[in-house]
Amino acid sequence: MNVPRQLYQLQEIDQELESNEKALREITSQLGDSEAVIRTREQMAREQLELEELGKQQRSVEWEIDDLSGKLTTAEKNLYSGRIRNPKELSNLQQETAALKTRRNRLEEKALEIMDQVETADKNVSRISSDLKALETEWQHQQQQLAANLAEIKGTLSRLKERRQLLADEVDPAVIEIYQQIKKQRGTAVARVEQGICRGCRISLPVTEVQQTRSGNLVRCSSCGRILFLA
Asked: Cα–Cα distance between 201 and 125 in angstroms, integer?
């Protein structure tokens, strides 16, 4: 096997390595917590906290209503018992009863408002909980698939590196060094020759370069400097 062919095969392996290493980096970046899941969990926590706070307010208002109802029952009992005959005391009791009713009515209205808020918050918690469950299920499935892909790519990389090493061992280290330098400068170190044209720079080659390349010698393009390979 001539050296240009070996280097061309080496380049194909290098390109596969680069492609798989890029895929490895992309998969690795996707492993771990999902931003969508994190945001939804945070939203869920906020909604649950709001629901708990509304629950406290609701219980507090209901307690106040119960307390006022007890006081109102006592005041009305005294008012209609007939025991109080002093006009001033009777007037004060009537005012107190009216004030208690007014205050209880306001609290009952507030209780209804809070009940509506609790119902809305409870629906939000249920909706977000459902969304979170779906997101977590999808995320877990994705993580499993990514882990499987990661293992597969690592296996491919291991095999490619082994193949590359075996091939590189067959080539003169000095030639490998030239290959690496051109690759660093040009991105691709070996260019195919097709119809007398270097496919690296797309410029027609002198006949002598094509002939030398055909013989299997290590020839570099006089235009772009890449190593020429004629299949």
From this structure: 62
What Cα–Cα distance (Å) separates residue 31 from each residue in 22, 47, 135? 15, 28, 15
pLDDT digits (tens, 9 = 90+) for 182-198: 999 999 999 999 999 99
Residue 202 and residue 194 in contact, taking contact as beta carbons nearer than 8 Å: no
Q: Give one word for 32, left, alpha or beta, with left for phi > 0 and alpha for psi -120 to 50.
A: left
Q: Measured between alpha carbons, how far is 77 from 95 in angstroms, rounded to an integer?
A: 14
Among candidates 30, 41, 21, which has minimal Cα distance to 160? 21
Residue with token string 């208690």: 100
CATH top-level class for 31-166? mainly alpha
Name the pLDDT band for 156 (thresholds 50, 70, 90).
very high
Q: Tell me if the pTM is above 0.70.
A: no
Residue partners of 133: CB distance under 8 A and separation at least 6? none
* CA 5/CA 131 separation, integer angstroms: 56
Tokens of 132: 């979170």
Per DSSP (E only), the strands in 61-153 are: none
Where exactly are the structural domains of the chain? Answer: 1-22+172-231, 31-166
Strand partners, 227: 190, 220
Q: How confident is the model at residue 152 (pLDDT cuts 50, 70, 90)?
A: very high
Separation of alpha carbons 182 and 177, rounded Å: 9
> What does the chain come to in residues?
231
| Span of 90-99, 169-178, 216-225 with lowest mean pLDDT | 90-99
